[in-house]
Amino acid sequence: MERMPRYALAILNQPSAEAAPHLQGAAAFAFADPAEPHLSVLDLGATRGDGIFESISVGDGRAQALEHHLRRFAGSAAKLDLPAPDLDAWRAAILAVIDALDPVEESWVKAVLTRGIEGDGRPTGWVYASHSADNTAPRTTGVRVVMLDRGFRHDVELTSPWLLAGAKTLSYAVNRAAIREAHRRDADDVIFVSSDGFVLEGPTSSVVFRRGDTVYTPGTGLGILEGTTQANVFRYAESLGLATGFELLRPAELQQADAAWLVSSVRLAAPVRELDGVPFSVDHEFTAGLNAHLLALRD
Ligand code: PLP
Predict the structure, then answer these.
(1) Would you kindly state where each structural domain of the chain is located, as residue ranges?
(2) Per-residue pLDDT tens for 267-290?
(3) Domain at 7-132, CATH class
(4) Is the CB–ligand 1 distance for residue 204 below 6 Å?
(5) All residues at 6 or more sequence positions from 5 whose CB lies less than 8 Å from its CB, including other chains
(6) Measured distance CA(237)–CA(235) in Å, rounded
């Protein structure tokens, strides 16, 4: 491997203390060459999308919202009845791959936990770090968004927990398909709407909107991810003296908002500049301040 590379990979020896290690007595994780194959063709993560992940922003070599991501990782594992991740081992591996990277302003880490090889009983885990792509355009110019029916009611998490709504599972083929549908409709991104007509989230982001002096997000318990970026957006808004709140709302009500953003790790805040073909006002000043704040986070 080159010195201080743009990519780094570490494979966990014992992703969960509830399952046996892959190699008795070995260190918690080992660096591996990301250009080489490491995953078995029998791994349930690959054959059934049976696993979970987290994508974490790294600013100037520091993981952002790391503890929040780790908590959500453990929550997703519980929703899938996966062995509980050993968060100390994961934290150490994440910090190590970040340290191994050439430090640039923006990188990201992806942590993946799968159910492992069928019948083996040992989960598979790895963390991969890479420099980030340039996200200036979505952060400044904004994104054109279409609203698409997700096909589940807003209370799916309560009525049908086996659908795993609200868990960050590896089964993102549907989310990718939704983005391709947006492209077919001459848009960049998507806001999912529940089958009973409530605004939910994007395929890779949370929805945040401002009305007057209050910044809102649709809420929790709606079969959507509890966003780490959304939580930091609220903290930023509160630091400016704005109020924050949760509001379950209809697409027509979102159209009436003063501004809206799709917010997520790595891309950060992308202002919505068009919603279902209708131009949407972008608050450039607030967006610039927000992205500067999110980029500078070092916790
Ligand atoms: N909702 C979904 C479906 C996502 O995939 C993501 C991020 O990947 C988010 C929301 C935003 O979460 P975070 O801000 O923690 O990255």
Answers:
(1) 7-132, 137-296
(2) 999 999 999 999 999 999 999 999
(3) alpha beta
(4) yes
(5) 100, 101, 102
(6) 6
Residues 6+ apart with CB under 8 A from 68: 228, 231
pTM of the model: 0.96
The hierarchical CATH code for the domain 137-296 is: 3.20.10.10
Fold match flag (7-132 vs 137-296): no
Q: Which residue minimizes the CA distance to atom 2 of ligand 1?
A: 204
* Residue 265 Cβ < 6 Å to ligand 1: yes
- Nearest-angstrom CA–CA distance, 269 and 233: 9
Q: Name the H helices within 21-155.
A: 44-48, 66-79, 87-100, 136-140
Give 3's pLDDT tier (boundaries 50, 70, 90).
low
5 phi and psi angles, rounded to 5 deg: -80, 175
Res. 220 pLDDT band, cuts 50 70 90: confident
Instruction: With a cut of 50, say whether residue 1 has pLDDT above it.
Output: no
The rounded Å distance from CA 238 to ligand 1 centre is 21
Pick from 236, 269, 159, 151: nearest CA to 200: 151
Q: Give the position, in ligand 1's atom list, of the atom nearest the Cα of 72.
A: 15
CB 205 near ligand 1, within 6 Å: yes
Tell the residue nearest (CA) to atom 4 of ligand 1.
204
